[in-house]
């Protein structure tokens, strides 16, 4: 016997896919037409954002808007928008540097468009480092690192677009080192954001409101980064790169967890101007991510053999149990507990996914497995089933042996020195 | 993403981006809502062709309104349905007499309604086919149609429907109850 309400629910009335696409394209083209006609509002807004003191006349911009080739003007102004955090305190010094170095302006503009894998990318990185160097405020440094991460994610999107275009004209096999480099840069910058945020937590202890405002802004940004990285993941077929992106997403979620901890703490002290519902929604969103990951882990278990599956399934159940408790804590508005439990669940899931990856790699189902195995198998394989659940919040880096950690730092320092050197060479050319 | 629930914060962010002229954000909203709005409009007016035309205008109107920084859209879903409802009403006005819709006025007495919707909807096995339901739906008063489509087909909450129809939540509960009751009786009489 079927309920009438069930039957009503099942009535399918959908427009054709062809109509949906056609209408979407038509609407977007109409929107573009109107966008070209809107001058004053955006111009005044964008002009307000140009804090370098550059005098760009309204008439000039307006004239540019009215031409078909106005795109570069908008991009130019938008580039300031993204970089405004970087420029704000350093504006005078940066301007002076530009004038002193004279002639390097064109190089700088070109470098701004560079993506990982290109020579000018080193110049872009060096500029970013100089900006960071000139900023002293810890909260501002965090915002700046976040703005750079936004640029890195955009770089990755550009690289993927280029890659797909090349694949479309059969100029590329799909195995592009540039994509791997771009993902590597994203990961590097995520670490940078984490470091800056941690440093801010130490330095700005006295200024709770400032820390809360920065954490809130970062939480908003993290949502965008996650969406963009997930979209990037959808475009990547290579399993190694996919794994890298997964790691990047996990790391972003880890930072988010720390950011939310700050928000919860500041909210309890009345230093965060956000309604409790809003805070609960943010925490719930984080919890939801963990639930999605559990479902993914359960799905991924189907790809391994029965024996291995059974052992890992126990771990999945363990994670589910932890998340159940987290949901109960959320119902009681115990946000700190929710965050701790979610962290625990993520730790378990990290182990599960690591094991699945290793098992698939051993079966030869993962591309590039041999290379990674040769690079140091012992350090990579996690002791999945044997390891007990921990409530600590160690980052991935902390799990690395000290010798390896020092090695990584040295390599990073060398790379950084190389980038600055390349930048100096480029700037003098 | 199509058809899934959109979070409040996502709405807020997309609306913010739209105010800055971001067409991709508009595209996302279109993807999310196009099927639902189409379903509502086409069931209300019974013509696919006309529904396509109206839905296109609904989204264009939405863009024009949301794009203006002076305006504030609080709830995208409610706002889209409101535009759609008003455009369907315009359509009725211009095609007066053409449609099969019977307009009945209903008097709402909240206190009288005590039976739950579930109770009413339970255990009905009318072996109905979709066409029969659609035909019966066309014979319902417009406000009943609205509530049946939104509540039982699109699964909106009473609160959301109340916002769209600009009525009290309690009023929606009563409307839903009466609408379902009348639909059942129409279906039985046609059987």
Automatic annotation (TrEMBL), chain A:
Transmembrane regions listed in the UniProt entry: 90-111
Biased composition (Basic and acidic residues): 395-414
Keywords assigned by UniProt, alphabetized: Coiled coil, Membrane, Transmembrane, Transmembrane helix
Region Disordered, residue ranges: 387-414
Stretches of the chain forming a coiled coil according to its record: 183-258, 287-329
Name under which the protein is recorded: DUF5667 domain-containing protein
Organism phylogeny: Bacteria, Candidatus Kueneniibacteriota
UniProtKB/TrEMBL annotation, chain B:
NCBIfam families: sigma70-ECF
InterPro entries noted in UniProt: RNA_pol_sigma-70-like (IPR039425), RNA_pol_sigma-70_dom (IPR014284), RNA_pol_sigma70_r2 (IPR007627), RNA_pol_sigma70_r4_t2 (IPR013249), RNA_pol_sigma_r2 (IPR013325), RNA_pol_sigma_r3/r4-like (IPR013324), WH-like_DNA-bd_sf (IPR036388)
Transcription regulation is among the record's keywords: yes
The keyword Transcription regulation is assigned to this record: yes
Organism encoding this protein: Candidatus Kuenenbacteria bacterium GW2011_GWA2_42_15
Cross-referenced PANTHER family: RNA POLYMERASE ECF-TYPE SIGMA FACTO (PTHR43133), RNA POLYMERASE SIGMA FACTOR HI_1459-RELATED (PTHR43133:SF8)
Domain RNA polymerase sigma-70 region: 33-95
Pfam family, one: Sigma70_r4_2
Source species, domain of life: Bacteria
Residue ranges constituting the RNA polymerase sigma factor 70 region 4 type domain according to the UniProt record: 131-183
Protein name: RNA polymerase, sigma-24 subunit, ECF subfamily
Signal peptide positions on this chain: none
GO terms for MF: DNA binding; sigma factor activity
Gene3D superfamilies linked: 1.10.1740.10, Winged helix-like DNA-binding domain superfamily/Winged helix DNA-binding domain
SUPFAM superfamilies: Sigma2 domain of RNA polymerase sigma factors, Sigma3 and sigma4 domains of RNA polymerase sigma factors
GO terms (BP aspect): DNA-templated transcription initiation
Alphabetical UniProt keywords: DNA-binding, Sigma factor, Transcription, Transcription regulation
Protein family membership: Belongs to the sigma-70 factor family. ECF subfamily.
């Amino acid at each position: 016997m079927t309920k009438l309400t069930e039957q009503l629910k099942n009535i399918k009335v959908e427009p054709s896919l062809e109509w949906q696409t056609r209408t979407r394209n038509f609407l977007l083209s109409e929107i573009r037409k109107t966008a070209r006609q809107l001058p004053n509002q955006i111009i005044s807004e964008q002009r307000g954002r140009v804090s370098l003191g550059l005098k760009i006349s309204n008439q000039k911009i307006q004239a540019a808007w009215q031409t078909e080739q106005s795109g570069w003007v908008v991009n130019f102004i938008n580039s300031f928008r993204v970089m405004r955090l970087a420029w704000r305190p350093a504006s005078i010094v940066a301007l002076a540097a530009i004038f002193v170095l004279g002639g390097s302006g064109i190089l700088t503009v070109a470098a701004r468009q560079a993506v990982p894998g290109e020579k000018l990318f080193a110049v872009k990185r060096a500029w970013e480092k100089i900006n960071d160097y000139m900023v002293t405020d810890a909260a501002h440094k965090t915002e700046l690192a976040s703005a750079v991460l936004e640029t890195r994610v955009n770089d990755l999107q550009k690289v993927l677009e280029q890659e797909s275009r090349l694949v479309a004209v059969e100029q590329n096999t799909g195995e592009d080192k540039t994509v791997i480099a771009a993902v590597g840069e994203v990961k590097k910058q995520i670490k940078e954001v984490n470091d800056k945020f941690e440093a801010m937590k130490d330095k700005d202890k006295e200024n709770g409101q400032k820390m809360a405002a920065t954490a809130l802004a970062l939480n908003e940004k993290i949502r965008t980064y996650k969406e963009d990285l997930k979209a990037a993941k959808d475009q990547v077929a290579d399993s190694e790169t996919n794994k890298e992106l997964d790691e990047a997403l996990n790391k972003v979620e880890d930072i988010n967890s720390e950011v939310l901890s700050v928000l919860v703490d500041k909210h309890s002290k009345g230093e965060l101007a956000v309604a409790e519902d809003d805070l609960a929604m943010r925490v719930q969103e984080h919890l939801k991510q963990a639930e999605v990951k559990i479902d993914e882990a359960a799905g991924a278990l189907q790809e391994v053999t029965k024996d291995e599956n059974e052992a890992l399934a126990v771990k999945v159940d363990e994670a589910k149990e932890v998340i159940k408790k987290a949901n109960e804590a959320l119902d009681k508005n115990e946000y700190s507990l929710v965050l701790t439990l979610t962290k625990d669940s993520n730790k378990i899931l990290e182990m599960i996914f690591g094991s699945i990856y290793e098992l698939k790699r051993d079966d030869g189902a993962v591309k590039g497995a041999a290379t990674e195995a040769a690079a140091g198998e012992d350090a990579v394989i996690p002791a999945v089933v044997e390891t007990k659940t921990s409530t600590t919040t160690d980052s991935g880096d902390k799990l690395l042996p000290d010798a390896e950690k020092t090695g990584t730092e040295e390599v990073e320092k060398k790379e950084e020195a190389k980038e600055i050197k390349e930048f100096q060479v480029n700037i003098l050319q | 993403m199509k058809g899934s629930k959109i979070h409040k914060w996502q709405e807020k962010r997309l609306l913010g981006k739209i105010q800055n002229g971001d067409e991709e954000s508009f595209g996302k909203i279109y993807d999310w809502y196009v099927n639902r709005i189409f379903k509502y409009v086409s069931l209300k007016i019974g013509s696919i062709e006309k529904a396509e035309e109206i839905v296109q205008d609904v989204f264009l109107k939405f863009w024009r309104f949301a794009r203006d920084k002076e305006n504030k859209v609080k709830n995208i879903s409610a706002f889209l349905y409101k535009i759609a409802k008003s455009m369907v009403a315009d359509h009725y006005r211009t095609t007066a007499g053409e449609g099969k819709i019977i307009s009945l006025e209903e008097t709402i007495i909240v206190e009288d309604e005590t039976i739950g919707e579930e109770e009413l909807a339970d255990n009905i096995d009318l072996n109905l086919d979709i066409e029969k339901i659609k035909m019966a739906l066309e014979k319902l008063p417009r406000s009943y149609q609205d509530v049946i489509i939104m509540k039982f087909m699109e699964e909106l909450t009473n609160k959301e429907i109340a916002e769209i129809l600009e009525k009290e939540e309690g009023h929606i509960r009563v409307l839903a109850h009466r609408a379902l009751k009348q639909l059942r009786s129409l279906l039985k009489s046609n059987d």
